[in-house]
Design goal:
Helices cover about 70% and strands about 0% of the residues. By secondary structure, it is mainly α. Helix 2 (about 15-20) runs antiparallel to helix 3.
């Protein structure tokens, strides 16, 4: 009776039908398929929530997993288990395992005997794949995508390469199909990466890198895929963060973006001038992250030569010079980060950026972001001077920078004592460090203001 009610409900209330399926007695012959139906229903609901960026109901994914595993355990003991039911149960349980970061468990489910899923999707000897069913190309593609993710997640690169080859064969040889394949695979890995905890991110980043290394060997794919790859590797690099891994991902990101811009130059793809400007800026930021500061500055300088009033680019150029100055033997770049690159260049540096932002304080249409940017510029100037003083072998030159900090920040506060912003504490810290290094007594940057009698 319970399974009949569940089947009637399944076409409507999927969640309610799952509850009825779960109530079927373990002694009933329908127990295993009922557990699997419940698991498939619950996983389907959870996937719908995930696609809509909702958080699945608490415990729903675990309930789906447990129901599927109970059903699989019973079916595998049968002399002739139903092939299709076992197939979809294992595939769904493997999807859940990958979603939860358990690549090894997913691989075990996909390879388990009897009837491993790769065997179930093999086409009949001498025949083409049918349009539907377990042997169809869409089902085989879904299985090999899961296998590829599981192999990459367990760092089995040779089987991963074989799975990738199968996917390329199934997708066909045309550029659009292969581009679609790489996009789908990459998008899934990026989603896995975004959902992963910090401990798993390096492992998944390596998997993404491996996939995109395969992509890079193709020269006939749609150019837009190169930009997609470069953009996503940039995001991976931002989250991995540590050196040298982060630098390696930034470098790979730059390579893909350069390939895309080459396609733009060759008229293989058309984009607007504004889009090209944004992509060039992204390329320069990727080169900066890779430690290729000269290439990054060359791009930013060329953009500013076209128009010096590209304020966001001015800030990125200053950040690049500052980051360059923090590397061994390049402390002179810290002063360039403040002063700019001279009269022959339109790269202003933090000093002129700060002056520009300070003038905006008196404009009627100023917004809160410009005040935040002003404090960021003042902080960058102070931190660059402190870093230079620490790194230079010229004691007098270092002392001069420390004196500049005290003078500049004192002047900044005297001009804007009533300006409220969360950026004051870092400026206070820089001011105190400069005083200590100069051997002067501590005194607050923000001195109490006299009150009116």
């Amino acid at each position: 009776m319970r399974i009949s009610v569940a089947e009637l409900l399944h076409a409507g209330e999927v969640g309610e039908s799952a509850e009825w399926f779960l109530q079927v007695s373990p002694k009933a012959p329908e127990y295993a398929p009922s557990q699997i139906s419940a698991g498939l229903s619950l996983w389907s609901l959870a996937q719908e929530d995930i696609r809509e960026d909702y958080l699945p109901a608490a415990g729903s994914i675990e309930s789906a997993r447990d129901a599927l595993l109970r059903g699989i355990e019973v079916l595998q003991k049968q002399p002739t288990p139903p092939r299709e039911t076992l197939f979809y149960a294992r595939v769904s349980a493997a999807e859940i395992a990958l979603h939860q970061g358990r690549s090894g468990d997913a691989l075990g489910l996909l390879q388990a005997e009897p009837l491993p899923v790769a065997k179930l999707i093999e086409p009949e000897a001498g025949k083409e794949r049918p349009g539907e069913g377990l042997n169809s190309a869409p089902v085989a593609q879904a299985v090999y995508r899961l296998l590829l993710r599981a192999y990459l997640g367990t760092k089995q690169l040779e089987p991963a390469a074989a799975a990738m080859k199968q996917l390329e064969t199934l997708s066909g040889s045309d550029s659009a199909s292969l581009s679609g394949l790489y996009y789908q695979l990459g998008q899934q890995l990026i989603e896995d990466f975004g959902a992963a905890d910090a401990a798993r991110k390096p492992e998944l980043a390596a998997a993404i890198d491996q996939l995109l290394a395969n992509l890079q060997r193709h020269t006939d794919l749609q150019p837009a895929l190169d930009f997609w790859a470069g953009e996503n590797l940039y995001r991976v690099a931002e989250q991995v963060g540590d050196v040298p891994d982060g630098a390696a991902y930034y470098n790979r990101s730059a390579e893909f973006i350069q390939r895309y811009l080459a396609a733009v130059d060759a008229k293989k793809v058309e984009i607007t001038a504004a889009q090209q400007l944004a992509i060039r800026a992204r390329l320069a930021a990727a080169l900066r992250g890779a430690g290729k500061f000269d290439g990054a500055i060359e791009i930013f300088a060329s953009m500013l030569k076209e128009s010096a009033n590209r304020f966001a680019v001015q800030m990125e150029a200053a950040r690049t010079l500052q980051a360059w100055g923090m590397t061994d033997g390049n402390e002179a770049k810290l002063l360039e980060a403040i002063e700019g690159l001279g009269k022959e260049s339109n790269v202003w540096g933090w000093g002129k950026i700060g002056i520009y932002l300070e003038r905006r304080l008196y404009e009627a249409n100023r917004d809160a972001s410009s005040v935040d940017q002003l404090f960021a510029a003042r902080r960058a100037i102070a931190e660059s001077r402190l870093a230079y003083a620490e790194r230079t072998t010229d004691a007098e030159a270092g002392k001069k920078q420390l004196e500049f900090i005290v003078l500049e920040l004192g002047s900044f506060y005297s001009l804007h004592p009533s300006l409220e912003n969360a950026g004051w504490p870092p400026l206070e810290a820089a001011y105190q460090q400069a005083l200590q290094k100069l051997g002067r007594p501590d005194e607050p940057l923000r001195k109490p203001q006299p009150t009116a009698e």
